[in-house]
Write a structure and sequence with these properties.
Elements lengths: L1 H21 L30 H8 L62 E5 L8 E11 L2 E10 L3 H7 L6 E2 L4 E11 L7 E18 L5 E20 L4 E13 L10 H5 L12 E12 L1
Parallel strand pairs: 4-7
Antiparallel strand pairs: 1-2, 1-9, 2-3, 3-5, 5-6, 6-7, 7-8, 8-9
Length: about 300
């Protein structure tokens, strides 16, 4: 009898344990009084496993049921609009850009190298050898104010020798009353060369030139006097600057002069009527020019 009662109690205890395992355990209420040993951790309640929905569906479905069709492929997402790339602003130039040395390029074999430009001679001083024949002593100064352009200044002293007057005056019995007078020119020339006052040239100048002319003197004799004439001249020619600065030039030109004839001495009419005739003397207004110069340029 006792063993039957013990068997019933054991079966009841096993059923209670199974029910306790199936039901979720609730956490026990915390005691009002603190645990004597706080270092012991609180027991974690056991979690029950719940079968997933997919497993339950497979278990409920019949074994011979056809397999469901595979899911349709999802439509591709719409292509996102691609925004145009923003222009990157150019970097601001630095305040001081470093110098960039050009890369040396090999010289072409068929390239003709130009010769270096000659030194520019800005000042030229020359003399006129031909002028010595007519008693004219002077010099010329040319200053290059710009390439191809020169200002020309000439100065001289004109003398009238007796042989020269005898060549010009026709007849005898005249008196030499001339005196040396200064003369000169101020002009401008254009040269074809860039090396200075050299090459072909053309120029113009103002002229102040002493001349001689006869008149009737107070002694009732013809006399030759000197005075100034003025005018202008045009010249063309060529000039070369040789090695060492030696300069040679030549050219031709034409000159026009304006001058009055000298007045006779004041004589009574009765005396002037018996005065001897004046010698014939050339009085041209337009004269040719022959240029020959030699000097130095620097």
């Amino acid at each position: 009898m006792r063993w039957i009662v013990a068997l019933v109690v054991a079966v009841a205890a096993l059923g209670a344990d199974a029910t306790a395992d199936a039901a979720p355990r609730r956490p026990k209420a915390r005691a009002a009084t603190p645990h004597k040993n706080p270092s012991k951790a609180r027991p974690t309640p056991r979690k029950t496993r719940t079968p997933s929905a997919s497993r339950a569906a497979r278990a409920a479905a019949p074994k011979n049921a056809p397999e469901p069709p595979p899911p349709a492929a999802a439509a591709p997402p719409p292509a996102a609009a691609v925004a145009p790339p923003e222009s990157t602003p150019a970097p601001a130039p630095s305040a001081v850009a470093p110098p960039i040395a050009p890369a040396p390029s090999p010289a072409a074999p068929d390239r003709v190298t130009e010769p270096p430009a000659p030194d520019l001679a800005r000042v030229t001083i020359t003399a006129n050898p031909l002028a010595l024949i007519i008693g004219r002593y002077g010099a010329n100064l040319e200053v290059l104010v710009a390439p191809h352009h020169a200002v020309v200044v000439s100065g001289y002293m004109q003398t009238f020798s007796t042989p020269l007057l005898r060549t010009l005056a026709q007849g005898t019995g005249w008196v030499d009353a001339t005196r040396p007078l200064p003369g000169g020119e101020l002009g401008y020339r254009v040269y074809s060369s860039r090396a200075g006052a050299a090459g072909l040239f053309a120029g113009a100048s103002f002229v102040l030139m002493p001349i001689a002319y006869p008149r009737l003197g107070a002694s009732m004799k013809p006399e030759i006097v000197s005075y100034h004439a003025h005018g202008g001249a045009l010249d063309v020619g060529v000039q070369a600057i040789l090695r060492g600065g030696i300069t040679l030039g030549g050219g031709v030109g034409v000159m026009a002069l304006a001058y009055p004839r000298p007045e006779n001495a004041s004589l009574p009419d009765e005396i002037a009527a018996v005065a001897p005739p004046l010698p014939t003397f050339p009085a041209p207004r337009i004269l040719p020019r022959l240029l020959l110069t030699a000097g130095y340029s620097f």
